Every structure is written in C-alpha cells, then in structure tokens.
Amino acid sequence: MGESKVWVGIMSFENPGAGALDYGPCRYGKSKLLFRGPRRKLEGNFVAALGGTETYGKFVPHPWPDLLEREIGMPVVNFGYPNAGPDVFINEPVLIDAAGRARATIVQLTGAQNLSNRFYAVHPRRNDRFLHASALMKTLFREVDFAEFHFTGHMLTALKAVSPDKFDMIEQELKAAWVARMKLLLDRIEGKTLLLWLTDHRAEGSAPDALGALPHLVDEEMVMAIRPFATDLVRVEPSAEARAAGTGGMMFAPLDEPAARQMAGPAVHAQVAAELLPSIARLI
After folding, report:
1. What are the percentages of helix, strand and coil residues in the chain, rounded to 5?
2. 3-283, which class in CATH?
3. Is the N or C terminus of the chain more exposed, i.e. has fewer CB atoms within 10 Å?
4. Per-residue pLDDT tens for 234-260?
5. Cβ contact 214:113 at 8 Å
6. What DSSP character marks residue 107?
C-alpha cells in the first residue's frame, strides 16, 4: 500500500468525458437519506466514512473513500452527505449502528454553520437549509427580514454584512454548538474513530468568502477540544498542486461548472486517501 498507487489510480480519470455523474443513490435500513452507491452490506469487515460534500465526492468519479478502499482491501462505506452538519449523523440510528459495527469510522469535520442552535434552526436532513430564526435572533437583528433566506450560508453572509459585531455573537454560539454536537456524535459511535480535518481545498485566487476558510467557522481550538473523544486525527492540507488542479478529472453538466469549482477535485481526493492510509491501516 502506498501513496503512488493512490495517485496513479486517479490519473486515469483526468478526461472522463462530458456530462453529469451517476452517483447510484441508495438507502440503508430505514434511513431516509440517500447516499452514494453502490449499496454495501453492512456486515463483516468494513470501514465507515461519515462526512459532508467532500466525503460524498460530488462531481468526482472516485472520491477518497473509493481510493482508500482500493488500498486497504476492505470495503469503505461512503456515508457522506452533501452539506451535512453533525446533526445528520447524530439523528440517524442506522448510521450510528453501522459505525459501531465497523472496524473503524472516519469522521470528516464539517462546517459549523449547518446546525441548529439558539439563533436558528436548520432542516434535520438537509442541514444547509435554513428553517426559521429564533426570537433571540429576531431581537438581535430587528432590521432583517428572515423570510428572504433559504440557506444558512446566504443568511450568515448577509448578517455579517449588516453587523460584524452582532455576527460575532452568532459565530461564538455556532462554535460552541459544534463542539458539543461533535462530542455527542463521537460518544455515540462505539469502536475506533478517526477524525479527518480537510482544510480549505479551494484554488488560490478563488472568490473571497465572508465566512472564511473551509470548513466554515471551524478552528484549531475547536478541533483540539474534540480530539480526546476520538482515537486519532489526520489533518490534510491540500497541496498547491492539488488545489490548482481544480475541476480537472471532474464530471458535471455545463451549468454545474460554477458549483464544481467550489468542490474538492480528484487531486485533492487522492491526497486525502494517501494521507489517511497510514492511520487507518493501524486502526484496522
């Protein structure tokens, strides 16, 4: 098993052809969530991968769970869910049970903006969907019409523009809620857990983001606060070359190109798999 094999495996997909990618959506047990296929049997030896858009591998023919599976010779079940926050996994008994039966569970750190808190509520499954503001939020931002917002990112960006000082209160709330929710998630998963901290994968020169680097609103202090609750931690900082590769090797319809430019490309996924390999090999 080695880094070179992971990189070679991804290079064959540099020119996969035009058109949208078929993710083979599937469900597990009684869960209402649609995950990336093919569907796997949750028995015997396997590794579970929980995470957001990067774990799911949007627009990427072979995301990092696939590449890692090839290296370890053991199924890596992709439980990545686009735009997920910790709430998606905490509230899905099927996933908690599967993670408990896995040889190890990799938990990708997702942003702090997509979780319910004292200021606002998000959709229980589509965590990037803003549902409603609390009385506390409406009191804090009396000048804002929250009916205009449908997504957390849009709302938080707008609120920061209205008042950076007031936004700081929301940011601190989100950070505290994220730490508490991640501790709860890790506590519920029986067995070995490996935290994957994938830092900002966007190419140099990308449009500035009011919410900062990816994963949004997550900093080292927060990660260190949850580190004792996991077996191991792997921090992956995408190389300049991987970030510069951008959409090379991705598959998407022409209209999806702007969205694809914000996603982790195949080169980033290859680096993630390569850097996860030594740690996951020790755990299984």
Report:
1. 45, 15, 45
2. alpha beta
3. N
4. 999 999 999 999 999 999 999 999 999
5. no
6. E
